[in-house]
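Model: Ready when you are.
Researcher: Fold this.
Model:
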Amino acid sequence: MTVRELDAAGVHDPALRAAYIRCRDLNARHGRTYFLATRLLPADRRPAVHALYGFARHADDIVDDLDSTATPGERARALLDLEAQLEAGLRHGRATEPVIRALADTVDRYGIAPRHFTDFLSSMRSDLTVGGYASYEDLGRYMHGSAAVIGLQMLPVLGTVGPREEASAHAAALGVAFQLTNFLRDVGEDLDRGRLYLPAELLAAHGVDRARFEWSRSTGTRDSRITGVLRAAAAHNRAVYRTALPGVAMLAPVSRPCIRTAFVLYSGILDAIEADGYAVLHRRAVVPRRRRTAVALDGLARAVAVRAMSRRGAGPGTEAHGSAPARTRAAVAAPAVREEAV
């Protein structure tokens, strides 16, 4: 499958192919839900998504790897080195780090705005020193770089049926929705890292504080007020999913099954959290395998149907924007992709 994906994407240089394979391995190993959804994309688009995920995962591991003995200073220096490699890679197309090499190629092919990666690394740096947020507004500023830009990075790869700027807000919201779900699922693990991504104002509204969360985590004792916080956070998360949902229909038809599947699986984590009584401080909620399989099979059926229509030249397979990498777009006479307005 990897060879077919790289051939379809027009990636032939051996070193570059190895870089993309490294990114794919990171996606397969660490992003089970994301990787499953990515396989529903046409083969030529998958390497780019793997590169975007691989870079984000590599940076995240520098900051968050619990098995690492690196000090905060060493992690900060590693991030600075990664940023320097990123700048060089995007400017000259050369990098020693495989994930940067693949990312630079993807950015060049699809014309992705470099500022999205700068904003991402800025949020990663804040994780080294910031352990909590006072309000959803403060958290939102952090999540612009850590999550919203991921959706914006993906848009040129996925393609849209109209002007890209019309889909941008929804794409950004979906990135935020996914990360809010991760925050809820991983709240116990994040506390172990010295962080809490639930705003202090939300905790205060339910009569608890961070110390209470830490006590619950360390003792295994439940608290109804903490459950209230988590229930409210899940409701907020669902509202963000509702904001993101209209954007799915704005994507290129061949990309919709992938994003729809990711949407259903990720929002399903909230259902699993609720079904488990919001016990996320003590164990990780998991979407049942049977549910995951059913959603994946539905996504596969949708993907096969759309591709069949596209091969026949039917309307639903026709894309107006972002239908091919920037480097090859002229060769296939596809319409030009609009510049991002965000």
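Researcher: Now this one.
Model:
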Amino acid sequence: MPELPEVEALREFLDAQLVGKEIARVLPVAISVLKTYDPPLSAVEGAEVTGVARHGKFLDIEAGGLHLLIHLARAGWLQWKDVLPSGLPKPGRGPLALRVALTGGDGFDLTEAGTQKRLAVHLVRAPADVPGVARLGPDPLAPEFDRAAFAALLQGERRQIKGALRDQSLIAGIGNAYSDEILHAARMSPFKPTQNLSEEETTALYEAVRSTLAEAVERSHGLAAGRLKAEKKSGLRVHGRTGEPCPVCGDTIREVSFADSSLQYCPTCQTGGKPLADRRLSRLLK
């Protein structure tokens, strides 16, 4: 799933490619992709793109005073094309979900792999008209997101820290992969209860959030959309690396599987050397 660093890199890429250009057509191909109907997609035809923003994991393309909001979900991606194929795309079983064509002949496709179609596109008058944007917590890379703001968010929370980091209404933009990376950098169990965090642990976790995301954004800076997936994978130290040695201590990276996802961690760095049992069978480890 694209998370804050990849979506920020896409924002930067699209800002350079789109601003000042005119939208010719927005063509939904998959039935499920478009989540709004008023205003209609035709309302941005002929409009000039004036900016590209990011809200958590949402991309926001502003044109003609309207906002085209894109959430790539788990298996969606954006493919830029200097020359789009001629003719109208045909609905079918392929991955193409939506096409944005510019008057100059270039543009991009939104694609989604797999059978679960969760990629979402909204055309709205204001970003907050999208419920997923309206409920977002603060951006963890915003200048005002300091240690005190982070600690205030955690006050009153009583759940595992892994789940708290992934909650978009608490902190915007962090998903499964970067929550694993953050917890590894903070040397913290993913199952540690938020209410048990000491002042020192809260500071370590805050610093891990900021540094992990900032470094990932920096690695992605200036990359074309087609290279971002590979860059993300190469930069991850524990997530998706079950069975490999930890780059910090050399211990074997382990995994806990859930119904539709998994997490990875280093026992030596994060759980005092104790392997975590399957989440569905174990008690929480502090």
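Researcher: Key takeaway?
Model: The chain is about 25% helix and 20% strand.
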